[in-house]
Amino acid sequence: MKFRKLESKSIYLWLLSSVAFTIPLPMLFNNISIILLLSFWLFLCFRKQTNKPNLKTVLVLTIPYLLLVIGAFYSKNLHQVSIELTKGLPFLLLPIIVLTMPFNILKDDFRKVLKGFIFGNFLVCLFLLFIVLKTLVEENFSTKTLWGLTHQSLSSHVDLNAIYLSLYVSLCITFLLHFFLTYGKNLSIKCKTLFAFVSLLFLVLLIFLSSRTVMISCFIVNSAMYIHYELKKHNAVKVLVRFVLIIGFLFVGIFTVNPIFKWRVESVFDIQDNTISSNKEQGIKMRNKLWSSSVEIFKGNWLIGVGTGDFKDELEKVYKENNYRIQYRHHMNSHNQYLSYSVSNGMLGLLLFSLYILYCVTLFIKSKNKLPLFILLTILMCFMTESHLYTNKGVIVVAFFMTLLLKHTKDTEEIGLNEKG
Questions:
Q1: In sequence order, what DSSP letters do the residues of 259-285 get, joined into one string?
Q2: What pLDDT digit, counting tens, does each position of 238-289 carry?
């Protein structure tokens, strides 16, 4: 019986790792891995080997999906409702599957799953950096070719939006830094060299993807993590000097390696050189129109919003009325997760989503492991300029890691309490 349970747990961890590994890959591979995980769960259910979950925890983790269901009741566009409910399924399936599995996810198990995610992103990173190097060599390292090697132009080679790939890479950097700060002293020279090499590749790709919000959130979160861990070992002055030197080196490197990122940063303040690109509506200018349109709809539907199926239609009406041609032509959403919930679900949606966030924050703060809190902070900051929970690639990464981190935190606390008892 013990052997069978260990064997079942190995299969379960392998399936979780496969879901993590395929997150940066085409959706077909990720869907197959989720179906395999679901099939294994149904097999355990048939054999009556699953556990009864904590109902409160399941309800909280499925709030993003419950909001879609609630908004479906007063939507006119039923076709869009079906699309949104299908995209949001990971928020329903993953909490139920993970929280009813009869296995704890402790440190070693958690690291195995993270390795799958990091390895998947590493392969994507290698492929894209090969394309960058190949193109630069062919063009005699001309800086004029950089525009075609950044942001969407680069990520399109793997059929991914630059925003989501940037978020994945940012999370990988955070996972690696956390592991290095925690276990660095015990690692061999070979392991440290490997960690430095992989982290550098991720950082270079992040620079080429040039997603400003993700880079800012990555900088803030990893700086906070570094200071938090280093202050435990060294005095404040030494930590501050190291921090300033590292950050100075990174900033000089970023603006030297990729002047296009410098252009994108300058576009926020409207001081960029517009001869580099003909598209003058960038960053804040673009999002101001999106955000003001969302606020306009929210004012007229502040309590429960316009519904899951109608929020895109209502936004496009406002774009058309205000002559926002780019926004209308590209069917853009709010590009802010909080405003998206304001449009689709009103104050009700914002309150329920806040409950979801507060529950996770409270649990993570109580735990001694700060990694879940740093990951959540990264995601919340990225929500400020993107509506991640209305796209497949955004839904899967948030649903997967929030469920996994919460399960890992709860299991670690329970084991600790049992040992103390």
A1: HHHHHHHHHHTT-S-TTS-S----HHH
A2: 656 565 666 666 665 555 556 666 665 656 555 555 555 545 555 677 788 8
Total residues found in the chain within this entry: 421
Q: 23-27, 76-80, 142-146, 179-183: which range is least confident on average?
A: 142-146
**Contacts for 293 with CB less than 8 Å, ≥ 6 apart:** 315, 318, 319, 322, 324, 327, 334
C-alpha R_g of the chain: 22
What are residue 105's phi and psi, to 5 degrees?
-110, 95
- In this predicted structure, the answer to whether residue 128 has a pLDDT above a threshold of 50 is yes
> What value, to the nearest 5°, has the Cα angle with vertex 113 and ends 111 and 118?
85
How would you write 3-55 as a 3-class SS string? HHHHHHHHHHHHHHHHHHHHCCCCHHHHHHHHHHHHHHHHHHHHCCCCCCCCH
Query: Which position has the token pair 């299991």?
Result: 411
pLDDT at 74 over 90: yes
